[in-house]
Amino acid sequence: MSTRPRMKNPLKGDASLDESIYARIAEAILHGRLKAGTKLPEQRLAALFGVSRERIRKTLHRLAAERRLEIIPNRGCFVPKPTVEDVRTVYEAHRVFEAGIIEQLLRVLDERILAALDAHLAAERAAAERGDRAASVRLSGAFHLLLVDQLGNAELSRFLRELLSRSSLMVSVYEPAQSSLCAVDEHGAIVAALRARDLDAALRLSREHFSHIESRLNLERGTPDEPDLAAIFAEER
Ligand SMILES: [Zn+2]
Fold first, then answer.
1. pLDDT at 198 over 80
2. Which residues sit with Cβ closer than 5 angstroms to ligand 1, an ion?
């Protein structure tokens, strides 16, 4: 959970409108309302949000720079459609990366870190119980970041943030909205193994955890031919 104050733009007006359009498109992707492969025509979005095409283009480019959207020259802007191979490589990267993190973490693990992990698990459980998918998605990624952040290595933290943005997108576009992102119990089991200082168990549980998420992704989900963008963005209100 971020303690950062909500972005408030001192200039207001244009910049905060851009920020809100950006957030609404990003959320529609995150919540799986925009499916893999959906085209986002500039003109249509400009009309929907009541702004110029130039401003929409700027926002789409920002999302593309974060790899949440894909801009294909002469064809337009699309919600990415990761391939089976993309999914395999991203989850393999997760497994390899976290194995290294767990090894390092066991060297510095103390009561303070364990307490932070316990608090995080409690927040995850609470979000799952009240069926708050947005919070669940945020917290499940944050669990893995919490492990990394304990090492105090900005490069490692940055690397995981990048990787998580790729895998979260895969979950958003390929996982049925009903199921949860990371199983809280699996996170709990990893924490229990860390607490017991059982390196082998922690490594195995972490590896299995990413394999489970990967296997739940349903790459068969087709692209809706004509998504109703007006309805998708109306739901945001
Ligand atoms: Zn997880």
1. yes
2. 182
